[in-house]
Amino acid sequence: MFRNGCEKMKYCNLCGRELMLKTLLDDSEEMYCEKCDYVYFDSPSPAIILLVHEDGRVLLTRSVGWKHTYWGLIAGHVKTGETAEEAAVREAREEVGIDIYNLTILGTYLHKARNTLMIAFMAETNVSQLSLSKELENAAWFQLYDPLPLRPHSIAAQVVKQASTRAR
Ligand SMILES: [Zn+2]
Questions:
Q1: pTM of structure
Q2: In angstroms, what is the span from residue 32 Cα to ligand 1's centroid?
Q3: Alpha helices for the chain (secondary structure H)
């Protein structure tokens, strides 16, 4: 699951020693293990967010357990050994059972509260029939230019807006 961005790392992942603050050459301070000579940058972890469109429609999803009524886009963490593009292809298969093509990067968005860097893509598919994973409560195609049921100003809403600008 997502890591809370407020938590600072205290101990070295490699040797277990308590970390210290180290001032780097650019005067920034980061947690540091003296024994391993390793700097722990508090970098966001990468995740993908994917807008799939087909014939003027976009694919929206709702995860199990969402309390609000908004929909979202396919999303998930980039796993070890994977590129962001591979993660996008895998998530599309896992979440809704579709193969995608024409995968294009749109940009990146920072989800500060979750210390996650969302890498946004758009892609197309030939498959209309969806097969939902257990993580999803629902998935459906929506007309792109209708008002979409996305949370205003959410990263999903920004991604759709950016993709619509491109499509014109
Ligand atoms: Zn260490």
A1: 0.84
A2: 8
A3: 84-96, 155-167
